[in-house]
């Protein structure tokens, strides 16, 4: 072996030792960093696992609260208001939000200048509409109101089944449908006669899917 080969061999060995030394230093520095990172990840992972049940429990409670709804408005105007119900002037009924058809109420109020009375067969004691809309007492209306009520409740029923998904027990009653048929075919009563009592009602608000399920199970 000549001198050049010996020198080259020694230089190569020296480079390898330097590289090995640098690699060792890098590893020595990386091990603590890696260990620290692993420890931090482990702590965060454990914290996340502990947090998940409480978050899930909170979501369950929030879902349960949002899913809860009143099916009736109680038995008094005060109770109805406390449950978030609104007074349906078309049917003189306190309705839960699911059964209150705001759009139809507006149409009904715009359809005519409705009068409300404190007594039957008298037109001298008029109750203003703002009082009637509060739903705090039963009143009397004329026959024209009654006829118009029946035509609008047909719309209300159709919208309930086709669009809204909820219907109140009074509107869904076949007895009410037969009553409105009789009203609309009655030709003897004058439209201006004040002979209809508009009694405050508190019907049950039903989900139509559940009604269909009940009918299928019979």
From TrEMBL:
Protein name in UniProt: Uncharacterized protein
InterPro entries, per database record: Phomopsin_biosynth_assoc
Transmembrane segments: 26-47
Taxonomic superkingdom: Eukaryota
Alphabetical UniProt keywords: Membrane, Transmembrane, Transmembrane helix
Alphabetized PANTHER family for the sequence: IG-LIKE DOMAIN-CONTAINING PROTEIN, MAJOR FACILITATOR SUPERFAMILY TRANSPORTER
Organism: Corynascus novoguineensis
């Amino acid at each position: 072996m000549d001198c050049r080969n010996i020198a080259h061999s020694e230089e190569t060995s020296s480079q390898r030792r330097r590289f090995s030394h640098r690699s060792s230093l890098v590893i020595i520095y990386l091990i603590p960093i890696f260990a620290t990172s692993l420890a931090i990840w482990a702590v965060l992972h454990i914290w996340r696992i502990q947090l998940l049940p409480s978050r899930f429990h909170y979501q369950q409670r929030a879902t349960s609260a949002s899913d809860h709804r009143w099916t009736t408005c109680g038995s008094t105007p005060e109770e109805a208001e406390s449950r978030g119900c609104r007074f349906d002037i078309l049917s003189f009924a306190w309705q839960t939000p699911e059964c209150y058809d705001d759009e139809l109420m507006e149409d009904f109020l715009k359809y005519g200048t409705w009068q409300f009375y404190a007594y039957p067969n008298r037109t001298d004691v008029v109750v203003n509409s703002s009082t009637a809309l509060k739903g705090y007492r039963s009143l009397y209306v004329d026959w024209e109101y009654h006829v118009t009520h029946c035509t609008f409740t047909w719309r209300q029923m159709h919208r309930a089944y086709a669009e809204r998904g909820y219907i109140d027990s009074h509107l869904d009653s076949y007895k009410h449908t037969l009553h409105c048929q009789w009203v609309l075919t009655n030709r003897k009563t004058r439209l201006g006669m004040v002979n209809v009592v508009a009694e405050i009602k508190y019907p049950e608000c039903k989900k139509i899917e559940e009604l269909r399920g009940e009918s299928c199970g019979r």
